[in-house]
Amino acid sequence: MQLFDVYPLFDIAIEKGLGCKVWDNKGQEYLDFYGGHAVISVGHCHPHYVDAMTKQLNKLGFYSNSVINPLQQKLAERLGKVCGYEDYQLFLINSGAEANENALKLASFYNGRTRILSAEKAFHGRTSLAVEATANPKIIAPINANGHVTYLPLNEIEAWKKEIEKGDVCACIIECIQGVGGIRLATAEFMQELSALCEKHNTILICDEIQCGYGRSGRFFAHQHLGIKPDLITVAKGIANGFPMSGLLISPKFKPVYGQLGTTFGGNHLACAGALAVLDIIENENLIENAEKVGEYLMEQLKAANLPHVVDVRGRGLMIGIELDTPYKEVRNRLIHEQHCFTGCSGTNTLRLLPPLCLTMAEADDFIARLKAVL
Ligand SMILES: Cc1ncc(COP(=O)(O)O)c(C=O)c1O
User: Fold this and answer.
1) Spatial separation of the C-alpha atoms in residues 110 and 43, rounded to whole Å
2) Whole-angstrom Cα distance, residue 79 to residue 81?
3) How far is the CA of 211 from the centre of ligand 1 (A)?
4) Sheet holding 29-33, edge to edge
5) Residues 248-275: what's their mean pLDDT?
6) Which atom of ligand 1 is nearest to the CA of 125?
7) Tell me, which fold does domain 48-284 have in CATH?
8) Most exposed of 21, 95, 142, 203 (fewest Cβ within 10 Å)?
9) Minimum-distance ligand 1 atom for the alpha carbon of 98
10) What is the mean pLDDT of residues 276-292?
11) 8 A C-beta contact, residue 103 and residue 157
12) At what angle do helices 157-164 and 188-200 cross, to 10 degrees?
């Protein structure tokens, strides 16, 4: 059997990792400013994470959601404390798209409505409603184009107000820092007005924190820079440092109903052990403060370096976009093949930096030197 060829691949096989470094099967070392697409939060193969996962796997990898799972209860308690949402409820699933599907479903159960507002350039996943809420017609199959979603410009509140005031909007779903969309930041003013409008018209506000959350922005959640409290928050990627897991944080105004939401694999023992180890490391090593400090330094240095072809540097914490006056493709390829450094990208001209949250100042300097050499 052949693999279904959906990804344009680099001809590189990564076989081991440590911290912010990875190595290919020929022994070549790479600096990882991509984090396997923002997934590696606490660094590759952190010994505490490896130990916790190994111990759990030797005890029990999986049992069903029909019995009590104390690890889920412990995770809900710990996560609530660390992120500042102790009064919220947690539903655990397996991927970002699945978290958004459940958020949108819960919103619709809550107010009985079917219209969604989403931002232009947004990315919310590749399934059903999550892909419909993703403003990219190329990935919305005809079966997913069901007319639920209106796309509106980020930060232009009048457009959102006009729709919400119609009184039929089920939910607004927003990334407070757009990832795939090119590191575009929602403003505090926009989010505060949006939040007030949602509250007034019984519309649910969903923050998709799948890429920008879990410490990456220098706060636990990117929306926490903006002075709002969404009704629903979705998380994935960094939650278990690469073990597939996602979560939906649910405000107290939602009351659970048996059977409305459910999952076979979600919140399994191994995933919870991984997520608990991630929280241990985030706390013990102050990784959120580190993301803020090193991210700020990296952005300052990138701006101060006055690199040719760089027209804008924007972001928060360790979620940084470097916009070029030329397509990123050649720059990104040369960073990988000549400088042995992985980065992400968005659109046609933007390099997207998503390194692990344990990035050091020295690694930030190292990256700038490599980028300078290429540019
Ligand atoms: C903001 C955002 N939402 C949702 C998703 C979908 O997550 P997954 O690929 O785990 O389904 C992604 C993935 O890149 C994302 O960046």
Assistant:
1) 38
2) 5
3) 7
4) 14-18, 21-24, 29-33, 341-346, 350-353, 319-324, 310-316
5) 98
6) 6
7) Aspartate Aminotransferase; domain 2 (3.40.640)
8) 142
9) 11
10) 98
11) no
12) 10
Q: Where are the domains of the chain?
A: 14-44+287-374, 48-284
Place of tokens 């939060």: 41
Residue 39 corresponds to which tokens in the numbers above?
């997934």
Q: Ligand 1 center to residue 235 CA distance, Å?
A: 9
pLDDT at residue 330, rounded to an integer: 97
Helix (H, G, I), strand (E, B) or coil at 33: strand
- pLDDT score, position 162: 98
Level-2 CATH architecture, domain 14-44+287-374: Alpha-Beta Complex (3.90)
For residues 318 and 41, what is the distance between their CA atoms, to the nearest angstrom?
10
- Count of residues in the chain: 375
Distance 95 CA to ligand 1 centre (A): 8
- Locate 368 and state its tokens: 């700038």
Q: Helices 361-374 & 328-337, crossing angle to 10 degrees?
A: 120
Distance CA 282, CA 265 (A): 25
Element (H, E) at 17: strand 14-18
- pLDDT of the residue at 103: 99
Q: Which of 171, 147, 155, 144 lies closest to 121, judged by CA? A: 155
Residues 6+ apart with CB under 8 A from 243: 53, 270, 271, 274, 275
Same fold, 14-44+287-374 and 48-284: no
At which residue do the structure tokens 């290919």 appear? 24
**Planar angle of CA 238, 290, 288, nearest 5 degrees:** 45
Which residues contact ligand 1 via a Cβ below 6 A? 95-97, 100, 123-125, 175, 179-180, 208, 210-211, 236
Contact 162, 169 (CB under 8 A): no
Q: How far is the CA of 27 from the centre of ligand 1 (A)?
A: 31
Output the pTM of the full model.
0.98
Question: What is the per-residue pLDDT across 86-96, written as a single tens digit (0 to 9) for each?
Answer: 999 999 999 99
Phi, psi of 138 (to 5 degrees): -65, -25
pLDDT at 18 (0 to 100) = 98
Q: How confident is the model at residue 306 (pLDDT cuts 50, 70, 90)?
A: very high
DSSP string, 134-185: SS-GGG--GGG--S-EEEE-TT-HHHHHHHHTTS-EEEEEE-SEETTTTSEE
